[in-house]
Write a structure and sequence with these properties.
InterPro entries: Histidine_triad_HIT, HIT-like, HIT-like_sf. This protein is α+β, with helices and mostly antiparallel strands and about 140 residues long. It has three helices and five strands; from the N terminus they run ααβββαββ. The site of zinc ion (ZN) has 5 residues, from helix 2.
């Protein structure tokens, strides 16, 4: 049976990992900034369950998954969003899409379905381009 795919993912609220980060106060407080990836995730990739990492792209299992299967793929260089990216970001976008394809293919092969999405505007909590690859029910 193919799991449901189109589950509204209006925002990442409640999905973002709470750490690890650099100081005790931050460890006990949820991240409240606007760029989780530059501020937290990309600073300590060893703390993540990484499935792919190269000089341009990081992909890992979400530490607080919203769906049964939930990975996130991000460019290492800061790009605010898909719709603000420019021709200057082409190499990073190309590299990102290659990894998104690999991760989505793996999820599709393993579970029979995958969703690939990125939030924009008010739906995008963390203002660093990131692509969710997910499958299954909302947790
Ligand atoms: Zn960033």
């Amino acid at each position: 049976m193919v799991p449901p795919c189109h589950v509204a993912a209006a925002t990442c609220h409640g999905v973002l990992p709470r750490g690890p980060v650099g100081c005790d106060d931050e460890r006990v407080q949820p991240y409240t900034g606007s760029d989780f990836y530059c501020d937290v995730a990309l600073r300590d990739t060893a703390a993540l369950d990484v499935v792919h990492e190269d000089e341009r792209v990081l992909a890992y299992h979400h530490t607080r998954p919203f769906w049964d299967v939930h990975l996130v793929v991000v460019p290492k260089r800061h790009i605010s969003s898909l719709t603000t990216a420019t021709a200057a970001d082409a190499e990073d976008l190309r590299a990102l899409l290659v990894v998104v394809q690999q991760v989505a293919r793996t999820v599709e092969e393993r579970y029979g379905a995958a969703c690939v999405e990125t939030n924009l505007g008010a739906y995008q909590d963390s203002k660093h381009l990131h692509v969710h690859v997910h499958c299954g029910d909302v947790r």
